[in-house]
TrEMBL record:
PANTHER family: ALPHA-GLUCOSIDASE, ALPHA-XYLOSIDASE 1-RELATED. PROSITE patterns: GLYCOSYL_HYDROL_F31_1 (PS00129). CDD domains: GH31_MGAM_SI_GAA (cd06602), GH31_N (cd14752). Residues 674-765 form the Glycosyl hydrolase family 31 C-terminal domain. The keyword Ribosomal protein does not apply. Residues 1-25 form the signal peptide. It comes from Urochloa decumbens. Residues 106-246 form the Glycoside hydrolase family 31 N-terminal domain. Belongs to the glycosyl hydrolase 31 family. This is Alpha-glucosidase. GO terms for molecular function: hydrolase activity, hydrolyzing O-glycosyl compounds.
Amino acid sequence: MLSFSRSPILSYLLWSLLLLTLASSNGVVATAKPKVGFGYKLVSLVQLPNGGGLVGCLQAKQPTSTYGPDIPRLRLFVKHERRERVRVQITDADKQRWEVPYNLLPREPAPPLTGGKVTGVPFTAGEYPGEELVFTYGRDPFWFAVHRRSTRQTLFNTSAGALVFKDQYLEVSTALPKDAALYGLGENTQPGGIRLRPNDPYTIYTTDISAINLNTDLYGSHPVYMDLRSLGGRGVAHAVLLLNSNGMDVFYRGTSLTYKVIGGLLDFYFFSGPTPLAIVDQYTSMIGRPAPMPYWAFGFHQCRWGYQNLSVVEGVVEGYRNAQIPLDVIWNDDDHMDAAKDFTLDPVNYPRPKLLAFLDKIHAQGMKYIVLIDPGIAVNNSYGVYQRGMARDIFIKLDGQPYLAQVWPGPVYFPDFLNPNGVSWWIDEVRRFHDLVPVDGLWIDMNEASNFCTGKCTIPKTHQCPIPDSKTPWVCCLDCKNITNTRWDEPPYKINASGQTARLGFNTIATSATHYNGILEYNAHSLYGFSQAIATHKALQGLQGKRPFILTRSTFVGSGAYAAHWTGDNKGTWENLRYSISTMLNFGIFGMPMVGADICGFYPAAGSLEELCNRWIELGAFYPFSRDHANFASPRQELYVWESVAKSARNALGMRYKLLPYLYTLNYQAHLTGAPVARPLFFSFPDFTPCYGVSTQFLLGSSVMVSPVLEEGATSVSAMFPPGTWYNLFDTTKVVVSKGGGGAPVRLDAPLNEINVHVYQNTVLPMQRGGVISKDARATPFTLVVAFPYGAMEADAEGAVYVDDDERPEMALAEGQATFVRFHASVRGGKAVTVRSEVMMGSFSMSKGLVIEKVSVLGLEGTGGKDLAIQVDGADAATAVATSSPCLAVGGEAKLQGEDGVDENSKRSVSVEVGGLALPLGKSFTMTWNMRIDA
């Protein structure tokens, strides 16, 4: 018997709730939400000849009006495009709908629409298998699923929810196991770390909203996720891409994931993995391999919005040199421009003759210079860039006129990079500017596109715009009114834009504006930065004949094939320091491995910056893209400002510059296979489930782990170590031996000026001496660090290095222009040690005089070595190449540490060093010796 409160009002409310629940369970609901859609049924399905896939026709089961009428007939297309990839596309059967242009993102075309009349063999089987993935479906209601052929594991299954397809609203859901670990769906700043959290918002729509905003759609649109599951102790991954440039909300509930998209079509690509590395290989093989970066791009970069004149820039370069802190690239934000106008120079603060003399000086040293350009072109009849753009009619339009917006120079028009004339105009303007200033790369910013105003605007007649000497130039000074009379500016379904269900056109281009051939901004909005990056890449590649370097803020699927990325406007706080890791790791999954955050923070924060900047340069020294950048309101934060930060910078960047050959080789591997430079731990250890959510550490490549301090006042760090042996690269006698331990952390000392960086067992790590500029560092002799499991009796290790002429646009092995070397090492019986190399196309490194001066082998036991023998290209080293006096030396005592603390019974020897070498990198060698073990 039910007993309620003595309060009559509370009893009434509880009884009402009970009755409503009972009524709902019997199908009687007093105020149910209107049904969005009732789904579709499959009325025909045929198989196209010659492996062309399946084509089916779907028919709406029952019309609804919520968010607009259902499209009555849909075309289903399914094709196993490669052994590891299946595509499932659903679109209007009778009318061409917007999709990502094939000239921007080349891919296999879907069959043309034929109004549902498709010839082929009727397909009646219950499933459509490929080599690795199988497509299954139901007919009434229509649903589809994808599973692995080998294990029958379901990857995606829409049977739990109705398919909804309207002109401006598409909805589809998939069921998920509750233990699936999901990653991706960005760009956004994720306070919970890299692993997606159920019920956090994931809105995908390119937006200029500072990266300090959490769980909010930011600068990039990447509707792809990776799903990692532990099955029988083995980590198995797959990925799902919804190739659609329209705005969308993605609702992840833990056991389901629902897409709500405001246009375009449903164009799914499923990638089978089964490893995380295989995923990015498969994904980038479709969207485009990451662009190769020049060697100098892996050096350290310095920028500030507020270098008001050239003398300040010269002083910054001198400051770095005097402090002996590495610096490769100096940047200008818009300070170099005349009144913030693209492709111009301020004649007073950056006079061209003095700037050219400065560039001659730093170029002679090997340094580089990069400047910012924004897409907004100032509306100014005396401005040649504007005049030429108007003459070629290349600006985005609203109501037949160029769309007026406001950015830093004041009133601007936006070039249309979907217009071939817009692209050719842009290429010409980049050429003209390069003739003016021989920059080494370009930084394209504000390209979401960002607009300080909203709606339809006109130049005011009652006041100036921009307002002279304004302290708030980002405040709209145009006369504007919201556009509310079109379904593009006010769609029936409102995505959670800017984290606050803002208008789609809020602080950007009005979504009813049009591009080339009548393409709506509503559809193409999130492609703007992507299309600008492609145009800029064409401009630099054709102009310089060198490998382009482009840094872009706004990105889309495929942007990594053209540009690097930084994580946008962050803040100088400990929280933002931590958030930077997850965003960086996400972009590796997105196919943009050259990524980093503004070191020390872009926006100023209250309190002292010194300790934070110490810790941030220690972390940022190991971002793939490493740049200090602040805004004009921030205190000066160049790394030499504080002696303590300078010391941290020399330490951390000193290690980075020693690791440049490793980082550059990762760049080569990324270009070949998409493999991220910076990776989550689960990329190398997918079977080790405790690392699935780790967002405070990361790997460089497969074998170097960075464990930064992320908390104020901390002098130690709690780090997770996957099973195996890890050697501290700053002091290789510090060794962590992890048994896995269920993910139990290890407490590491981390004084203010130190960061923990470890190399994993079974690795041969190529390093050089380092330096304060990459041009000099890359010419120094190599050291090979060979890491065996601690005390190993039988073990193998391997590694590789790629060197080339990074002026070449292409990054590929070619005789005389590049060398690739594989390294192998082994220990047998705890005594016999072999280290050898296999060289491909060695003439380039021979011509550069690159040599190996030292081999350091970690993890061996013994008191020394004997019987050292070295052969180069099969001949005895004494006759094959001149060397110094090769010698064997034994390292000091190991300091062992694991989950249980420090092992006081550390073994005596941890390393053997073979020094005094001058082995040509371009010739294969074999080195052997035996360990001496005294009784």
